[in-house]
Specification:
alpha/beta, eight-stranded mixed sheet, 8 strands, about 55% helix
């Protein structure tokens, strides 16, 4: 299908909802009055773009309509796509450029059920396909069979894995993985962690401990090669606005650097990307658009915005 084809296919539910909404509120000769903008605002909120993002987009559309005129549905979609892309692109581009030239340590966090282990497997495959050596650390020793599931993904992606027995100290697993990555000079170390929420206090403290182990290893030189340390949260797109609380809790615990959005193909609420950016100024770096090993795509704000509104 190609990159954009996969992205467009993954966003077809959201694009269909926005497209049908635009068709219902905007036809040839429609006056762009207060009623129209109110309807457009509600349409954007239905896609879970969030109030702050929606109001910003409405202001942009008003400016475009006044300056250039909007006479067709395609022109309205183009204006929407341009405004959405401008909201999203800057921080994503800056973070990706910062990451490209350094070996990386990536800690993955998120609640159970969002597709965290699957996202790690697909992320490993993405980097392996890019010619990088990848090591996985099975830091989720809390959930039964978590290490085995991660091991299956390691086999599929053809990457190495460090794992201990169930119930082992996760920080110990991570320390051993850091040592292994240093010894083998791996390009990418991806750390899995146990799924948790704010009411699992001991697990959140465990997560902070893992964070301290990684930070200390970098500060003391235990990891011999210069590395970029990043912390990404995996978010289920089908949860819409409910995912914002998850981002808030984990961000407070370990200071997140970015978001991996999964199950985008199963929802009409793909606009949650905008809400996350507006609320936390966190870039969405990868989006999951299907079940295949290569269906985790690097985020591109302009392509995403066009696919979101149904512009092929």
């Amino acid at each position: 299908m190609g990159f954009f084809g996969k992205l467009f296919g993954g966003l077809k539910k959201t694009a269909a909802a926005i497209g049908s909404g635009i068709a219902s509120i905007f036809t040839g000769g429609t006056e762009l009055d207060d009623d129209f903008y109110e309807d457009l605002l509600m349409l954007l909120l239905t896609a879970d773009i969030g109030m702050d993002g929606a109001e910003h987009i409405i202001a942009d559309i008003k400016h475009t309509a006044k300056k250039q005129g909007i006479k067709t549905q395609e022109e309205l979609k183009s204006a929407l796509a341009k405004s959405i892309a401008e909201l999203l692109c800057k921080s994503n581009d800056e973070l990706r450029m910062a990451n490209d030239d350094l070996k990386q340590i990536i800690m993955i966090v998120g609640v159970n059920g969002v597709g965290k282990t699957t996202a790690i497997g697909k992320l490993a495959n993405y980097y392996k396909s890019d010619g990088k050596s990848v090591l996985l650390a099975a830091g989720d020793t809390f959930r039964a069979a978590a290490s085995e599931q991660l091991n299956e993904w390691a086999v599929r992606a053809k990457v190495r894995i460090v794992k201990h027995t169930e119930g082992a100290d996760p920080a110990s697993v991570v320390f051993d993985a850091l040592s292994s990555a240093a010894a083998k000079n791996d390009d990418i170390l991806i750390i899995d962690t146990a799924g948790r929420l704010h009411n699992k206090t001991h697990l959140m403290e465990e997560l902070k401990k893992i964070d301290r182990v990684v930070t200390k290893s970098l500060q003391t030189g235990d990891v011999t090669t210069p590395r970029q340390y990043r912390k990404y949260i995996v978010v289920d797109a089908t949860l819409g606005q409910n995912s914002l609380q998850q981002v808030e809790v984990f961000n407070e615990a370990v200071a997140l650097d970015g978001v991996i959005l999964t199950k985008l193909d199963g929802t009409a609420k793909g606009g949650i990307v905008v809400a996350i950016k507006q609320n936390f100024n966190l870039p969405v770096l990868f989006v999951g658009v299907g079940e295949q090993l290569d269906d985790l795509l690097p985020f591109n704000a302009h392509d995403f915005a066009r696919a979101l509104v149904g512009l092929e």
